[in-house]
Design goal:
The chain is of the alpha+beta class. It has helices at about 10-35, 135-150, 155-165, 190-215, 220-240, 245-250, 255-260, 270-275, 285-295, 305-320, 335-345, and strands at about 45-50, 55-65, 70-80, 90-100, 105-115, 120-130, 165-170, 175, 180-185, 265-270, 300. The protein has eleven helices and eleven strands. The strands form three sheets. It has a seven-stranded antiparallel sheet. α2 runs antiparallel to α4 (about 190-215) and α9 (about 285-295) packs antiparallel against α10 (about 305-320).
């Protein structure tokens, strides 16, 4: 009998995420060099889970250049074949965030993963959301329609769940303008589900690449740059106080903190972030204050790799001290079993 990591469905899912990773890196590189011929390549950065005993992955990243503020395209392949009591058998995932340097080019977040539990259940998670600093209605409509056409039977529910997940109650706004989110997706037909996951993310990649080419050369004003800094601060706030995937990854292990926080932009406004402390529930106030303290005392504040490590430690320390605060994090219509089990263990249940 094959181990979880060698199951045919796990291997097929791995092929999907690795193929999409290469496709996205190619699309991003071509878009960047179409406008900036000297744009640097995406560099591969391998990482290991528990020194490789439980898998690892490769993160392609670039940033701090004319095209990209930050861009990360990460594939992870983790498994627990040697731990029979652990419920998670194997999980493969592509997670990516792109923050362009030109303010009128929108950011994007993509995630597709396949999780196999040892009890026999397996499911997909599919997310694609457009996150512009300066929203443009034609771009919003184009991205939304492309995703709707890629999954017509699931689109209405996916958009509704995405809007729920990416709502920031403290700020009374969404993180972005289009949010597609399928959680615990399993119709019982693996091949059909695999094809849908690949089609949705592939469509998001190609549509975003076209938008990126369109806007990388747009003229930039100081007001545009100020709007981008403000939005990047909102993005960091949402990721570090509400995003379940980020928090779960940080709580489970500390092997890839820089990669997990690869979604963070390069600079934020610490004063703006500090102002949010009065808007969150009381139990979350220390978290926001801790995040501000982890940033350098400059304006704007640089989010370096060293700062990411400090931010990751702040998040871990907070939820270990206040596990009840996990219930305040974002949720769609379905809470993934692996996340639910982690939350219960943190609460001591």
């Amino acid at each position: 009998m094959s181990t979880p990591s060698q199951h045919p469905q796990v291997l097929a899912a791995r092929n999907v995420v690795e193929s999409l990773q290469q496709r996205f890196v190619t699309v991003l590189t071509q878009a960047a060099r179409g406008r900036f011929p000297d744009a640097p390549s995406f560099e591969p950065r391998p990482w290991l889970r528990d020194d490789g005993r439980h898998g690892g992955g490769t993160r392609y990243q670039t940033g701090s250049n004319k095209a990209f503020d930050r861009a990360s395209v990460n594939v992870s392949v983790v498994h627990y074949d040697d731990q029979p009591d652990r419920k998670l058998g194997a999980a493969v995932a592509l997670s990516s965030i792109v923050h362009p340097r030109p303010p009128r080019a929108p950011s994007i977040h993509l995630h597709v993963s396949h999780t196999s539990l040892k009890e026999g259940r397996a499911y997909w998670r599919v997310m694609a959301d457009l996150n512009p600093s300066l929203p443009l209605e034609p771009d919003t409509a184009r991205f939304r329609e492309a995703l709707a056409q890629s999954a017509p039977a699931q689109a209405e529910a996916a958009f509704a769940q995405g809007d729920r997940y990416f709502w920031i109650d403290a700020l009374q706004r969404h993180r972005g303008v289009v949010h597609f989110y399928l959680e615990a997706f399993d119709t019982g037909d693996f091949e059909a589900d695999r094809a849908l996951a690949e089609r949705v993310i592939g469509t998001a990649i190609d549509t975003y690449g076209s938008l990126l080419k369109q806007h990388l050369g747009d003229p930039v004003t100081e007001a545009d740059r100020a709007a981008q800094l403000a939005y990047h601060t909102v993005y960091l706030f949402q990721v570090l106080t509400l995003d379940r995937g980020t928090t779960s990854g940080l709580m489970v292990h500390g092997d890839n903190d820089v990669g997990i926080l690869g979604s963070l932009p390069s600079h934020v406004d610490p004063a703006q972030l500090a102002s949010y402390a009065d808007r969150v529930p009381d139990v979350q106030r220390p978290l926001v204050e801790g995040l501000v303290a982890a940033l350098p005392s400059e304006h704007p504040a640089s989010v370096t790799d060293a700062v990411k490590l400090a931010l990751a430690k702040t998040v871990r320390d907070h939820y270990r001290a206040h596990p009840e605060a996990l219930r305040l994090q974002a949720a769609g219509n379905v809470l993934p079993p692996t996340v639910a089990n982690h939350a219960r263990s943190e609460r001591g249940e």
